[in-house]
Design brief:
The chain is an all-alpha fold and about 160 residues long. The protein has seven helices and two strands. It has helices spanning about 15-35, 40-50, 60-70, 80-90, 100-105, 115-125, 135-150; strands at about 95, 110. Helix 3 (about 60-70) crosses helix 7. The longest helix is centred in the N-terminal third of the chain and has 21 residues, at about 15-35. It is globular, with a radius of gyration of 17 Å.
């Protein structure tokens, strides 16, 4: 694993969560309000800017991913995600598999749900980081893949 990879929050997550919560049309409407001078614009902008804050731990990552998934129509439950994370990485967002057939082929599985880079790119969920080690992006992409392949991450009970 590259030494420069560290566990941290990627990008302006608060802004991203706000856009995910609002949707594209809401974001376009909310952004002009931030600079508006009317008395009614300030409360609207303040409300739009208030995003849910998630703890920087496994529980928070799963809950944030569930929010992103809901906004994108991706099925899955807390229990299904947690069960698969514990099997795949024991909750380590920097986990990397350097021994299986994917690793031998030069594409190791990474992150909480052990996603290979081509799968991560193919199932990346807009509004999340493009770094496959980012916990929320990793969960969201893996759940998007599982939904496409198995109907939901909840239907996955072994390596997938």
């Amino acid at each position: 694993m590259p030494a420069q990879v560290k566990q941290h929050r990627f990008g302006n997550r608060s802004f991203t969560r706000g856009l995910v919560a609002l949707g594209a049309a809401g974001a376009v409407l909310a952004l002009p309000l931030a600079g508006a001078a009317t008395a009614h614009a300030a409360p609207a902008a303040a409300t739009a800017a208030k995003a849910t804050t998630y703890p920087n731990n496994l529980d928070g990552w799963i809950r944030e991913a569930l929010s992103v998934m809901a906004a994108n129509g991706i099925p899955g439950s807390y229990e299904g995600i947690h069960r698969n994370i514990m099997r795949e990485s024991s909750g380590n967002p920097l986990a990397i598999n350097n021994w299986d057939s994917n690793a031998v082929a030069g594409t190791p599985s990474k992150g909480l749900l052990q996603v290979i880079d081509p799968t991560f790119r193919a199932y990346h969920v807009p509004g999340t980081s493009t770094n496959s080690y980012d916990p929320v992006a990793n969960i969201s992409a893996a759940c998007n893949y599982a939904a496409d392949r198995y109907g939901s991450i909840d239907n996955v009970f072994g390596p997938y």
